[in-house]
Amino acid sequence: MADNDRAKTEGASQPSKGAEFVTPPNYLKMKVGAGGIDKEAIKEAEIAIQVLGHKMYSKWADDDLGRMRASFEELKQTSLDDPDSVKKMLRICWDMKGLGGTFGYPLVTTITHYLSNYLEHCLNTEAAQVSPAVVSPHIDALYVVLSQKISGDGGAIGRELVSGLEKVVLKTGARIGG
Question: What pLDDT does 153 receive?
């Protein structure tokens, strides 16, 4: 074997000194310390958030419902197919949908879920217009649930309300699930 070939073969068997692995310092662990997470403190914080949230939810939901009504009136005054106005109502639906379930109002979540699916259908379907005959019952149902503080599933009345709204939305061709 030539000296040049031998040098190439010997160099290939030795470990490369080009790569060096560096483990960066874990600043988060330094801040938290060795004790880890205080589970009791987390429990107390979660309870405090729930208590405050339940107290504030009614006001938040009433404000959102007021914004939804105003947005719907604006939509009726301009054009029932104006995408910007429909999107504005849709954002309000999404806000209410998320907070309803979080604070013990699953009926609010279900109603706004159906309404948001309908509004998305209107946005995504050519020549579709928002129908007051579909939106108004949803807004009225939200008003009843919030004014009567109907938490949980609402029992038989809640199931009947949800079933009726579901039928109204399904007649439009919008989907319910998802």
Answer: 86
Closest CA to 119 of 159, 99, 92, 146: 92
Q: What is the pTM of this model?
A: 0.72
Q: Going by C-beta distance under 8 Å and a sequence separation of 6 or more, which residues neighbour residue 29?
A: none
- Long-range contacts, stretch 90-98, CB < 8 angstroms, 24+ apart: 90/116, 90/119, 90/120, 90/123, 92/64, 92/67, 92/68, 93/68, 93/119, 95/64, 96/61, 96/64, 96/65, 96/68, 96/142
Q: What tens digit of pLDDT does each residue of 19-45 get?
A: 888 888 888 777 776 666 778 888 988
Residue 178: CA atoms inside 13 Å, Cβ hemisphere, count?
A: 7
